[in-house]
From TrEMBL:
Residues 1-45, 359-609 are annotated as: Disordered. This is Uncharacterized protein. Residues 599-609 have a biased composition (Pro residues). Residues 439-451, 482-495, 559-598 have a biased composition (Low complexity). Residues 359-368 have a biased composition (Basic residues). Residues 29-45, 470-481 have a biased composition (Basic and acidic residues). It comes from Mycena maculata. It comes from the Eukaryota. Residues 374-388, 524-536 have a biased composition (Acidic residues). Residues 328-355 form a coiled coil. Keywords: Coiled coil.
């Protein structure tokens, strides 16, 4: 009966596979045969290349064997194993080697000296007649002889240098072989730490590119020789960073940092908690009762934070050495010791001898805290403007400051003009008025700095265009005012020789225009208004009056003549550009069909519209 297999429950509907490749079309027999021939041809080419490489490797091993008197296998192992055999010790002893070693010792005792081929020729037949027990006996005697031998090494400077050179050579072979087999990169540096012998720092990089990358990795100038010399000097000095520091404070800070780090590492090691932290103020609660450990070997009379310890180097060095030598360490308390420790702590708390862990009290507890007002913000802004440098046209951005409601309200808003849009209608700008005096806060009564009146102006294309437009409007109003004054001071023609101007197109008549100009010229505050207009962006608009209707042309001429008789100079000034010349009284306006003689009688009021 065939074995049954449990199937995994699947969904009833087919599962959509997004991004899956389509099933390729079936190949024909000719195409499959062609692909097979290509694969076989490729495989044959690889085999031939490997065979040629193997033959060249064997030939090279034979050449090296003849040149250096070593077996070809030795060089092949060096090629393919990369020196890995040097780290593998031979644990099993060959019985024939033990037998031959004993026979060589007997020949030396008899005063004979035989090499390995001679020993093999003389004693190999005897070795074939040995039983397994006799072979094991030879092996045990050979092992005992090796244990009893004492290799004496001459500890001289030259012997140390040779030993270092051999180890460095083996490490290089091992790293190169490991990189060839596995694919690793690395480097090492070997320096001496004593003055008994002299040897240069031994550097080795698995690739030249790795050494060239070191200046980029360290982001500074890298010199392999210089780094090796400094490392050697540091090691000869005893590998003590304190010896490299200059001032007493630097040495004290270094020792305190080492004390703090050492205690934290020991606490983490004994508790197994990587987040454990050493507490000095609440040591009893956060260390003893929480973790169940106790610090022993503290050299100072009182447990304090290392930052609060004395800067004397001798006590700090003593505590640092105690932590380094495990004289000062943490020990685990038993359950009975922990209960006794906790009971004593509770008694001390009840008696008031120690203080329970609590949060620190705020310094301004009980004092009313107020938020900064707008006046204080203005004072701070004035101080910042006083200290700030003059504005320049450089591309460096200005420093930012806190924005308040007052500063946002006072900040002018300038909109960029739109070339496609129609010009905006003139809007009356309210006249600036002085604010009434109010009570000021105590913080606002202090005198303002000298530079408080100097406001920082914006310097951009929009602001410059607005300023130029204001200046041009002011100059235009001033020129119009001067022209009106010059026209008023000139001699005027007789009233009867002047004709009223024709009625302009629109809802305004000649009399209304003349009357409005007369009212403005007779207004004593007109000059003041002009001065105020120079300060404002646009003049305040006047409300247009309702148009006056006349029943006939005679009535219109009568009103115009009466207005001209009352203010001949003003009428001439307002219509100087279009007034008729003397002698042209017969010319009639374009909007009037008939003309009546001028009558000094007042005109009747116009009917209601």
């Amino acid at each position: 009966m065939p074995p049954t297999f449990a199937t995994i429950a699947i969904e009833s509907h087919p599962k959509a596979r997004h991004g899956s490749s389509k099933t390729p079309a079936l190949l024909t027999a000719e195409k499959r045969k062609e692909n097979k021939e290509k694969r076989e041809e490729k495989k044959d080419g690889i085999d031939q290349a490997l065979a040629a490489w193997w033959e060249s490797s064997v030939a090279l091993a034979n050449d090296l064997s003849n040149r250096y008197k070593q077996k070809p296998k030795y060089f092949l192992e060096m090629m393919f194993q990369g020196g890995a055999r040097m780290v593998n010790s031979q644990t099993k002893i060959n019985p024939y080697n033990a037998f031959r070693a004993e026979k060589a010792a007997e020949c030396r005792d008899n005063g004979e000296s035989k090499d390995a081929p001679t020993l093999h020729h003389d004693y190999f037949e005897e070795y074939k007649t040995l039983t397994d027990a006799e072979k094991d006996a030879y092996v045990e005697r050979f092992r005992d002889t090796k244990k009893c031998e004492v290799k004496l090494r001459r500890d001289t400077p030259r012997g140390k240098i040779q030993d270092v050179a051999n180890i460095v050579r083996n490490i290089k072979l091992l790293m190169v072989g490991l990189g060839t087999r596995v694919g690793v990169e690395g480097f090492f540096c070997i320096v001496r730490n004593s003055t008994d012998f002299h040897i240069q720092p031994q550097w080795f990089f698995t690739s030249r590119e790795l050494e060239q990358y070191m200046p980029i990795a360290t982001r500074r100038k890298w010199s392999t020789v210089e780094v090796g010399t400094k490392v050697e000097a540091f090691c000869v000095a005893g590998c003590d960073v304190v010896n490299l520091l200059h001032t007493s404070k630097q040495k004290a800070d270094f020792l305190k940092a080492g004390i703090r780090e050492g205690l934290t590492e020991k606490l983490i090691a004994i508790t197994g908690n990587p987040n454990a932290q050493m507490a000095y103020v609440w040591y009893e609660e956060d260390v003893v009762q929480k973790h169940g450990v106790e610090l022993v070997g503290w050299t100072f009379p009182q447990l304090l934070n290392p930052s609060e310890l004395s800067t004397s180097l001798s006590p700090l060095q003593e505590l640092h050495d105690a932590i380094k030598n495990d004289t000062c360490k943490f020990v685990r308390l038993t359950a009975q010791q922990l209960r006794a420790r906790k009971q004593k702590w509770e008694e001390d708390v009840a008696a008031g001898r120690i203080e329970v862990k609590h949060r620190a009290t705020r310094k301004d507890k009980g004092a009313k805290r107020t938020l900064p007002t707008d006046n204080e913000d203005e004072d701070e802004r004035s101080d910042e403007e006083d200290d700030a440098p003059a504005p320049t046209t450089s591309s460096n951005p200005a420093s930012k400051r806190r924005r308040t409601t007052a500063s946002i309200a006072q900040q002018p808003v300038v909109e960029e003009p739109d070339s496609d849009a129609e010009p905006p209608a003139p809007v009356a700008k309210p006249v600036a008025r002085k604010a009434r005096g109010t009570a000021k806060a105590a913080s606002a009564k202090k005198p303002a700095p000298k530079s408080a009146a100097k406001k920082t102006l914006r310097d951009d294309a929009v602001t410059r265009a607005a300023a130029a437009k204001l200046k041009a409007d002011s100059l235009a109003r001033r020129a119009a005012k001067e022209a009106a004054a010059a026209t008023a001071s000139a001699p005027q023609a007789p009233a009867e020789s002047r004709r009223p101007r024709p009625t302009p197109r629109g809802n305004f008549t000649s009399k209304e225009l003349i009357t409005s100009e007369d009212e403005r010229n007779n207004d004593p505050d007109a000059d003041e208004d002009d001065d105020e207009d120079e300060d404002n962006t646009l003049p305040p608009p006047r409300r247009p009056r309702a148009p006056r209707r006349f029943s006939s042309a005679d009535e219109m001429d009568t009103e115009a003549a009466a207005a001209a008789a009352t203010a001949p100079g003003r009428a001439a000034a307002s219509g100087s550009g279009e007034a008729a010349a003397p002698g042209s009284a017969t010319a009639a306006p374009a909007s009037v069909e008939t003309e009546a003689p001028v009558s000094p009688e007042p005109a009747a009021p116009a009917p209601a519209a």
